[in-house]
Write a structure and sequence with these properties.
Radius of gyration: 26 Å
Shape: globular
Distance between the termini: 11 Å
Number of helices: 19
Number of strands: 27
Strand order of the largest sheet: 3-2-4-1-10-9-11-15
Largest sheet: 8 strands, antiparallel
């Protein structure tokens, strides 16, 4: 949520700031602003409510603002309504300090009240303005430099933050600090960049430094110096980002979401290959799962009594599927938890459990907090994340990276698919270590996963049928998804995709629960989507579909090839290539992603940036 950019160098800063903010639009926002300084002159601050193009129009795409040093921000409203006065950057009462901020300062009202007694005045409803004035207060009271003033402020406040600050007395410097919210410095030649995400800077450089918790920095055109809260210098080694700017562009597709749907076969294959060892001889597959490089030895695995999987949104749905797969292959009890609930219900914890946290960005606030809760109880943690060097990745005991590449659309597609692959590999590894999967069965399971990319591509190639079907239901008010077992997990993700981008109310139900109240909502013309990939449960779910059809429902059936009798029951059938049923989610989710996409397009909605949503949820 929210995005920060900064630039200092020899180029005109404003166009670079606007360009960087555009790359961060996926994070969600409702207003934007930039501050640019030309040498020793006062910074010029320009803000706008609404989309970034409004700010671009006000500044002639940045050309109207002179200066080679500046910071910018896209705001997601948390304290105060979306407005120009609440938009960032915020300026201290006398203009000595200005800053942009991601996160939440929890004790800002207390600070605001204190500063009001010292003649500080406030023009906005935000927490950020209070902290900008607090920095100014310490800077003047103790007559210290910017780093000391920042350190005193950070000790005083409670909450999460990524900060970029400019001081009137230090015209060619930008100061930064972070705790629990992402911020990086990208290193150029005679110029440097600040951003919430490396994608904002990839046009200019791929060398970045990640700022750790409770660290600060001073950025100039010549370089950057990092400090801890004691003011001691911290040495850092730059990291080279292994993807380029083109990976974060649409590449000819109308929307990022459609591009990312099409990228899933490659993303699945790349993630799968990353955790294999062995070779192929001719047509023979001789691969083995290799998670030992993550530190997960067989001896360690055999000591686990169970698995707890933690996630939010789609990551939680991955966990629900993983629960079925791991319990089946490894015979370990698995519990799936919403990250936002885990630490507040005071769970009974087995110290010999492995906690698996799933997050695309590696910065999801609730997931990070849940992981820290688990670690505080002495549990081992495994992170499944997509962003190398992210906060969750740095703090987890073990990291299983997915290889989805940058995902820009708010609605996840390829990150979800690669997270599934990560959990499949984990399940096989657990089963092997516990003596439940022999080499022959491992080979068979890996061959099934290896075949998934080609099967996913076949589904994508048949997308026109789903486009036609979506056009018939663009005016739907309510849609229900039903399934059993893994199919229920698939329904949960399909329902989320539909509601988050098409704004159609949809719900997923375990099919066996229909008669316990939900069936009363079915009326003539209600669309009910049944997912039937599990052969043991096929007849039971088909019977549930017949029940709702008798009450007027219009039926779509999603099932494996060969189940052609379903056409006698449903109004529209979509058949999936056959695979091991444990891995059916990887195929069944694709048509549901496409259905949600085409519904949104048919309604003329902004597919990549749905209302009220953000890609990275970095506050609770």
């Amino acid at each position: 949520m929210c995005g920060i950019v900064g630039y200092i160098g020899k180029r005109q800063a404003a166009p670079i700031l606007l360009e960087g903010l555009e790359k961060l639009e996926y994070r969600g926002y409702d207003s934007a602003g930039i501050a640019v300084r030309d040498g020793d002159r006062e910074p010029v601050v320009v803000k706008a409510k609404g989309r970034l193009r409004v700010l671009a129009d006000k500044t002639d795409n940045g050309r109207a603002l002179e200066g080679c040093c500046g910071i910018g921000h896209t705001r997601w409203a948390t304290h105060g309504i979306p407005s120009e006065s609440n938009a960032h950057p915020h300026v201290s009462t006398d203009g000595s300090v200005l800053a942009v901020h991601n996160g939440i300062f929890e004790n800002y009202l207390e600070i605001r009240e204190k500063l009001s007694r010292h003649d500080y005045r406030f023009y906005s409803q935000t927490d950020t303005e209070a902290i900008v004035n607090l920095i100014d207060y310490y800077y003047k009271k103790y007559k210290v430099g910017p780093i000391d003033a920042l350190a005193k402020t950070l000790v005083r406040v409670r909450g999460s933050y990524a900060l970029a600050v400019m001081f009137r007395d230090y015209p060619n410097q930008i100061y930064i600090a972070r705790k629990d919210n992402p911020l990086i410095v990208a290193l150029g030649e005679g110029e440097n960049f600040i951003a919430s995400d490396p994608s904002a800077c990839l046009k200019y450089t791929r060398r970045v430094c990640y700022i750790d918790n409770l660290e600060m920095g001073c950025v100039t055109a010549e370089g950057v110096t990092f400090y801890d809260l004691n003011g001691d210098v911290v040495e850092k080694t730059p990291v080279l980002i292994d993807w380029d700017e083109k990976a974060a562009e649409k590449g000819g597709y109308e929307h990022f979401m459609m591009k990312e749907i099409h990228e899933q076969p490659k993303a699945i294959a790349d993630t799968f290959r990353a955790y294999l060892c062995g070779e192929t001889e001719g047509e023979k597959l001789d691969y083995h799962v290799d998670l030992a490089k993550l530190g997960l030895s067989d001896e360690l695995i055999r000591g686990f009594n169970g698995i707890t999987i933690i996630g939010c949104g789609s990551a939680y749905h991955v966990g629900v599927t993983a629960q079925y797969v791991i319990e089946d292959l490894a015979r370990l009890p698995v519990r799936v938890e919403f990250a936002s609930e885990y630490r507040y219900r005071h769970p009974v914890i087995d110290p010999n459990n492995l906690v698996v946290v799933i997050s695309q960005s590696g910065e999801t606030a609730d997931t990070l907090a849940a992981m820290r809760e688990a670690k505080a109880h002495g549990l081992k943690t495994l992170a499944i994340v997509n962003v190398i060097g992210s906060l969750i990745a740095r703090e987890a005991d073990f990291v299983l990276y997915t290889y989805a590449g940058p995902e820009i659309s708010v609605a996840t597609t390829k990150a979800y698919s690669t997270q599934l692959i990560g959990t499949y590999m984990l399940a096989i590894c657990l089963g092997k270590a516990r003596g439940l999967i022999d080499e022959r069965e491992e080979q068979r399971l890996l061959a099934e996963i290896a075949a998934l990319p080609e099967k996913v591509q076949r589904i994508i190639d048949d997308k026109e049928r789903l486009q036609w079907f979506a056009a018939k239901f663009s005016n739907a008010k309510d849609v229900f998804f039903i399934g059993r077992g893994i199919d229920y997990a698939i329904c949960m993700e399909g329902s989320l995709k539909m509601k988050e981008i098409s704004y159609i109310h949809s719900e997923a139900y375990a099919a066996g629960e229909l008669k316990h109240g939900t069936i009363s909502l079915i009326e003539d013309g209600t669309l009910v989507i049944g997912v039937l990939t599990q052969s043991e449960l096929y007849e039971k779910t088909l019977s549930n579909l017949i029940e709702v059809k008798s009450r007027g429902a219009y039926l779509m059936g999603l099932t494996s090839s060969g189940n052609y009798d379903i056409e006698d029951t449903v109004n529209f059938a979509f058949f999936l290539p056959k695979t091991d049923e444990r891995f059916a989610d990887s195929l069944a989710v694709i048509p549901l992603q496409l259905l949600g996409y085409y519904l949104a397009v048919s309604k003329g909605l902004d597919v990549d940036k749905p209302r009220n949503l953000a890609k990275s949820v970095t506050v609770e």
